[in-house]
Design a protein that fits this description.
three-stranded antiparallel beta sheet; alpha+beta; seven-stranded antiparallel beta sheet; Creatine Amidinohydrolase; about 25% helix; 11 helices
Length: about 475
């Protein structure tokens, strides 16, 4: 690039005035004309005033040279364009362990939908009973964008936290470490620690983290006073936890094993759950969903230490519908064929889960208590202990009808609560949930998703790339 031409020289040499075109008194060239010949100065390709326009167009300017007419080719000089730096959007990634609030990962405030599945056959609205139509009018909430976004947010929290569990949980960790990791992750992603009175009812855990091993099929969580259990290489671990936003609970579970021996057991239960999801739909009878689950589940077998075991569907626990702030509604879906003609209805929310076992398939209560749930309509008026009444107020204020555990009470700073809990249970104010076990030495697995029976499709709200 040539040196920049001064502004006053530009005006004199190429402004079009008569003086600029005359020959010099001694017959010399007009000032600046030599630059067109020599290639120096600002007329070549490289130089230019900042005021000149861009482009490569040439123009011819006549210049008098001692009686001869010549042409000076001037080229409009290129201006170097300043490229504006594009502002790159900063993509916020989730940390490990997950602690970045979800509203920072999704700044738009809109969360991804679950898997959308068509119904196997369109629901026959003309055949619906008047009663079910009236019930549906009270469940139009599934078409409310705000509610759907709340549900999808809860589902995304579940996906991100369970991804961390699947990547990091290994033999040698204690179940307490795992449970606290799950629950701390859920609360961090929701941006709500749940410690302020009533804040856990805005968003938080849908129920205590279930970490059931081997023959313990369901409803075990580490609680204060329990001997801490260390995860072993041969263990089969069922991870079951819920996330809620404004009372809408995502209930989803998966099973982890660290030995390929149990792969077929896990495959059987996962296949059975997916079959239940595919079969479920508006106007579908519950007995048909149960029959499809059992057929798939019991087509598998697993070999453990040289012995072949048929995979059996567990008979003492069921899938269920979900209500707002209540993990268990009124409808139940067994994993074995029944004669129940009850139909699934539009607007309902179901936790489609299945459990398979190498044991008998009939469960019994084990020692200890997994968690507690406040009974609807229960009144503390007849409670004999003042401590029980105070505890009832704390439970009502922080959990409502959401299932909680002793670990959650201690996290709130509640002390000396055991007598109060016992009183609330004995008077029917609280329901206690013990762990459920099959025969010792057996192994069990669980997979579960939450589905929304919407008008045009069913949304598997908790579906992810993992299961």
């Amino acid at each position: 690039m040539g040196s920049k031409t001064l502004d006053n020289e530009d005006d004199k040499g190429f402004g079009g005035s008569s003086n600029s075109s005359k020959a010099d008194s001694v017959g010399g060239e007009p000032r600046g004309a030599h630059t067109a010949r020599d290639g120096d100065g600002s007329l070549g390709d490289g130089g230019g005033d900042e005021g000149d326009s861009d482009g490569d167009d040439d123009e011819v300017v006549p210049v008098a040279l001692t009686g001869l007419e010549s042409c000076v080719k001037t080229t409009k000089k290129n201006k170097r364009k300043r490229t504006k730096r594009k502002k790159t959007k900063t993509v916020v990634k989730q940390s490990s362990p997950p602690r970045v609030p979800l509203n920072q990962v999704f700044p738009s405030g809109e969360y991804p939908s679950g898997e959308l599945l068509n119904y196997r056959s369109p629901p026959d609205s003309s055949a619906r009973a008047t009663a079910s139509e009236l019930r549906y009018l009270g469940r139009r909430h599934l078409e409310d964008p705000a509610l759907l976004n709340d549900y999808r947010k809860a589902a995304e929290v579940h996906r991100q936290v369970r991804q961390w569990v699947q990547e990091t949980v290994k033999p040698g960790q204690t179940l307490t470490e795992i449970a606290l990791g799950v629950e701390d992750g859920v609360r961090a992603l929701l941006g709500n620690d749940g410690l302020a009175p009533g804040s856990a009812l805005v968003s938080g855990m849908g129920f205590p983290t279930g970490l059931s091993l081997n023959h313990c099929v369901a409803h075990y969580t580490p609680n204060p006073g329990h001997k801490d259990i260390v995860l072993q290489q041969k263990d089969v671990l069922k991870v079951d936890f819920g996330v809620h936003v404004n009372g809408w609970i995502v209930d989803s579970a998966f099973t982890m094993s660290f030995d390929p021996t149990y792969d077929n057991l896990l495959a059987a239960v996962k296949d059975a759950t997916d079959t239940g999801i595919k079969t479920a739909g508006i106007d579908v009878r519950i007995c048909d969903v149960s029959a499809a689950i059992q057929e798939v589940m019991e087509s598998y077998e697993v070999e453990i230490d040289g012995k072949v075991y048929p995979v059996k569907a567990v008979r003492s626990i069921c899938a269920h519908d979900i209500k707002r702030y209540r993990i268990h509604g009124e409808k139940q879906i067994p994993f074995v064929k029944t004669s129940d003609q009850t139909k699934m209805e539009e607007g309902e929310i179901f936790a489609i889960e299945t459990f398979g076992t190498t044991g008998r398939g009939y469960l019994k209560d084990d020692n200890g208590i997994y968690g507690y749930g406040l009974q609807r309509g229960a009144s503390p008026a007849t409670l004999p202990l003042a401590t029980a009444k105070r505890l009832y107020k704390t439970i009502q204020e922080n959990f409502g009808t959401i299932v909680f555990c002793r670990r959650y009470l201690e996290r709130l700073g509640v002390e000396r609560y055991l007598a109060g809990l016992s009183c609330l249970v004995s008077h029917g104010v609280l329901e206690a949930y013990p762990p459920l076990v099959d025969t010792k030495g057996s192994y069990s697995a669980q997979f579960e998703h939450t589905i929304l029976l919407r008008e045009s499709n069913k949304e598997v709200i908790s579906r992810g790339f993992d299961y």
